[in-house]
Specification:
single chain, 426 residues, five-stranded mixed β-sheet, 11 helices, 31% helix, elongated
């Protein structure tokens, strides 16, 4: 075990945790390994200050207009200074990464990712601000225990940082390489930056489709025989069967000019009530923010503490407490990412003015068979009928859209039509 405060090179770090280092290769050159494992990006030698390129930081700010520093829009110099405050002058390792897929593919994805984009892979995107990035080297080690060795490498790196350097960085209790922004256990580097990556583009919903299911054997040619030729009905037979003549078809605009061709059924009209799926009411957005605060401020530290306690018990491969805590962390982080994405992409619905009719965010009181109920019309993401939150995509919610006080709305159900009498719309 190395002494605390003694800087370690990338191969020394890998050996410290029991892995055999492979490499190095210059940044940008394909790594000849397609297995899972860990990798480290290292400078040729430690540098006294961060080699941050101001023009790259400026382009980052131009590309991501929502990037904020301590809640305000920064200048290029202010943003570069904040990044530079996390630089560790005695360390040559600037990033420790891991992947459960292919080391080669992960590095290639990092190299292709434009600073500010989320895809192909935005991990370690601070590397893209360094003018010395082309001179860095990549070391790697294949392993199936990816998370365990990534955590061990970060712990060994932190142990090699001297007390003086710890005191100089903004967060002495959470020492990470320059371009690492979080640990595999969920602890994040407190940088003061927000909105540093562009949101994922929202894909448009596919157009509605109408599928006609034919009984087996009813389609033409299903029995192996060619279809019977169709003949034009004439005279009294045409009048008796009610077949329209070509002239009447053209006049009505409903016929086909090609004999023998059946007219395809028209697709039913579709409605998109309540706007896009990402639309939230103000109350719904506040509920999501409250849930996110609990997950990140209460639940995440609890899970991290459980993981640390389980690691102290010994062998991680036979450690049920560690596996259980890791599984819980996986679900927690998945929910956190889903909430962050939903809030980032959400459009807050504006409550309609009085008398404008019910819409997203409206509270509507209705009477059904002498019983009174109050609903809030919401998007599908926050619907919960048991709590009175009714989705505008549901049959009842769709029928109530646009309703005003005093109106009667009929909703078709499997048991027949149900009439809702609107008492008030707030």
């Amino acid at each position: 075990m190395a002494d605390v405060g003694a800087p370690l090179s990338a191969p020394a770090l890998l050996r410290q945790v029991g892995l055999l280092p492979d490499g190095p290769l210059p940044w940008g050159r394909p790594v000849p390994v397609r297995s899972p494992g860990v990798f480290l990006v290292e400078l040729p030698a430690p540098l006294a200050s961060a080699p941050i390129e101001l023009t790259r930081v400026g382009k980052w700010l131009e590309r991501v207009p929502g990037l904020l520093l301590d809640g305000a829009r920064p200048t290029s110099r202010a943003l570069a200074a904040r990044l530079g405050s996390f630089w560790l002058p005695s360390q040559s390792v600037v990033y420790i990464g891991a992947t459960e897929a292919s080391i080669s593919a992960r590095l290639a994805a990092m190299e292709r990712t434009v600073l500010g984009d989320r895809r192909p892979f935005s991990g370690g995107h601070w590397l893209m601000t360094l003018r010395s990035l082309p001179s860095t080297r990549v070391w790697w080690a294949p392993t199936a225990a990816v998370e365990e060795y990534e955590d061990a490498l970060l712990a060994a790196f932190a142990a090699s940082v001297s007390a003086d350097e710890r005191a100089a960085v903004p967060e002495p209790g959470n020492i990470l390489p320059f371009a690492n922004l979080r640990r595999p256990t969920g602890e994040r580097k407190t940088t003061g930056l927000s909105g540093s990556l562009l949101p994922d583009p929202v894909e448009a919903a596919p157009p509605p489709r109408r599928v006609v299911v034919m009984p087996d054997g009813d389609a033409e040619g299903a029995h192996g025989e060619p279809p019977e030729p169709r003949r034009r009905a004439t005279g009294a037979k045409a009048r008796a069967t009610g077949s329209p003549s070509p002239t009447s078809s053209r006049a009505g605009g409903g016929g086909s000019a090609t004999p023998g061709m059946a007219r395809p059924p028209a697709a039913p009209p579709t409605a998109t009530p309540g706007g896009p799926a990402a639309t939230l009411t103000a109350e719904g957005a506040e509920r999501l923010r409250a849930e996110l605060a609990v997950l990140t401020g209460v639940k995440r530290p609890e899970v991290i503490a459980r993981i640390r306690a389980a690691k102290e018990l010994g062998d991680l491969k036979e450690n049920a407490d560690y596996s259980s805590a890791r599984e819980e962390q996986s679900f927690l982080e998945g929910r956190v990412q889903a909430l962050e994405a939903r809030l980032r992409e959400a459009v807050i619905a504006v409550v309609p003015a009085a008398g404008a009719g019910a819409d997203l965010g409206s509270k509507i009181t209705v009477e059904i068979d002498g019983m009174t109920d109050t609903y809030t019309l919401v998007g599908t993401a926050e619907a919960d009928p048991s709590l009175g939150r009714l989705s505008v995509a549901s049959p009842v919610g769709r029928a109530l859209l646009g309703a005003i006080a005093g109106a009667e709305v009929a909703v078709q159900t499997p048991r027949g039509a149900v009439v809702y009498r609107v008492l008030s719309v707030d």
